[in-house]
Every structure is written in structure tokens, then in C-alpha cells.
Amino acid sequence: MSPDPQAATHTIVSSVAQIDPGEWRRLFGDSPEGYDYYGTLEASRLEGFGFCYVLVRSEGRVQLIAPLFWSDLDLAIGIEGAARAAVSAARRLFPRLLVVRTLFCGSPFGEEGALGIETGCARGRSLLSELVRAMEGVCREKALAFMMFKDFPERALPLLEPLVPLGFMRGDSFPNVVVPLPYGTMDGYLASLSRNARKDLRRKVKKALADGPIEARVADNVDDVIDRVYELYLNTFEAGTVRFEKLSQDYFIEVGRRLRSQARFFLFHVDGRLVCFNLCFLHGDRLIDKFIGMDYGVARKLNLYFYTWHHNVQWCVENGVRFYQVGQTDHEAKVHLGGTLVPLYFHARHNNPLVNAPLRMAARFLAPRPPAVAQPSP
User: Which domains are seen in the chain, by residue range?
Assistant: First the structure.
């Protein structure tokens, strides 16, 4: 019997360079983290990460492309308070408690889950089933215990619905935060904030400049200051309570080389010394805030977090950027400054069916809980 030409089949490749760029663009469209971005990740020599890509074919053509990566997942990343303290204490004896090697669909540093599928395709269920079959094979080969579709927006939930009968549970990820900027001037943005937020931001910016000017410049690469940039990045990484990835120095170099048209490094100097950097990506009318690094001795004294926020919003307003996307942490402060929470979701499954039932019961305790924050009002 000849094979069914309609049946979905898959191939797995180890590099995005093995995928036709035209096929990628056809399935992913205009994405802020596209073909070249995945090439950047591969070239960055990220410790603890591996990458591959699944291409699912049906009806004689590629109808789905899924970027995959594998790394450790800390299942306790969302817990706080006494429970976090208990986990930290237990990890002195069992360092990998609640840490599992996981295969992810998406990008380790993406703002949203990434899955390219043919527009209007009527075979979504069979394509996803074939993708999961491919992921199961990768898990067996790499000895990975867990599979996760990471940080997908609400509009993608109908597409991912076929994962539920395949044993995946759905849960809440850390939400993103986006600041709408439909303003022609900085005064328009400030007027949109609550009275307390407006007063607080102005006071902190004034304090930052009390001892002298802060020199700010925008660059598309940081080759000339890369050692200092990476030092500042590590400061912030080590200070963070919610950490997933650790970037390499090569990452910042490769971003400047491969993504120069998108990359915007905001560099802040005090007395001629670089004290803060902020890597953002410009995509259409959206500025996506990716990574920040600070000299905390200076940052705390000068309220640099708020100064850089004010500077970046002003840059957006002056350059016609309508949305400032500011990431998945520090929700309370960001909403206070005009941000809107954007829900994100995951689908996950352990490869041992016996583990999935108790994991579902524990999920409500392990799920991230962003603070309940009121949306800004004038």
C-alpha cells in the first residue's frame, strides 16, 4: 500500500540554517523574533541549552515549523513566601528538587510562544499530533522528562486546544506587560498616569539628575563596551528572584552583529562611566524591552530604574513607537507606570503518565501568581 499523501510526517533539523527562509516567513509571518534571531541564539553558545526544529509536512508541503529547545525548568519558579523558603532549604540537601530537564516549544527568551503553522490550515489537529510525536522522540533521545509549549497568548489557545486530549494540562504563565503610547508628547503619557504615579515618576527623575546629568545614547551594538555590559547584566541576573535563562557574553555580541536593524542598546553613563544598559528590539511600532543591567551602587542612589523607564518612554513617543513592551516581571511597578497585563499560557505534560495526575494537583501551588494590581487610571 502506498503512503497516504495527506498524512502528516515530520523531519527534525539541528539548525535554522537548514530551513528555507521563505518557508519560515510564510508560516511565521512578520515576527519580532524571526529567522535571524534563532540563528543568533544558536551562535551565542548558551550554556545548558540545546536547539532543534521540527518541520511537519502534509499535502506535499511544509505546513508547520516548531522551534524547540531543551534546558532545566524550575517548577518552583512561581512560588513565593514560606513555600519558596522551604524549597530553598530543601535544595541544600537536594539541589535539583523540582528541577526537570524539559523540552520546550518556543524561544528561551521570547515574549510569546513561537509556532509557525499554515494560515487557514484545516489539519491543525493532525499537525500538532505529529509535532508531539516528534517531541516525544527528542525527549527519548535527550533523556528529557517534561514537554512544554511556553508562553502562548490567548489568541493561540484555539490552535493549541488539540494538545488537551493528548494529555497536556494548560496553566497560566507570567503575564506580559505592555504600555500603550497613543500620545504625541511626553506630557500626554504623564497625563495618562494616576496622580500619585505621575508625581512619583517626576520626583524620581528629578532626584536622578540632582547631582548632574546622565548621558544617554542609543547604539545598535556594544562591541566597544561588551565587558562592562556583561558585568552589568550579571549584576541584574544574580539579583533577580525570577530567573530562567543565563545569557552568554556572545549573545550580546551576536545581537549587535546579526540583528543590527532591530537592536537598540540604550546606554546610560554617569561621570563618563557606563552604569546601566537596556537591550530592546524595535519591531514596527513596538519597542520590546528584553534585558537590563545596572551598577546597583549607582542605580539605588539615582533611581536609575525609573529614570531609564522615563527615558525609554520618551524615546518611544519621539520616534512614533506606539507600544512599549516591558516583560514578565515586576508587574506592580510596571502597571503603576501605565502598563497593561497581557495573559500568557502554557501547555505541559510529563513523559511518565503516572506523574501527570499528581502534577496537575500540585500545579495550582506551583503556578506563577503575579500581584493583583489595579489598572492605571487618570
Answer: 9-173+343-366 (3.40.630.30), 177-341 (3.40.630.30)
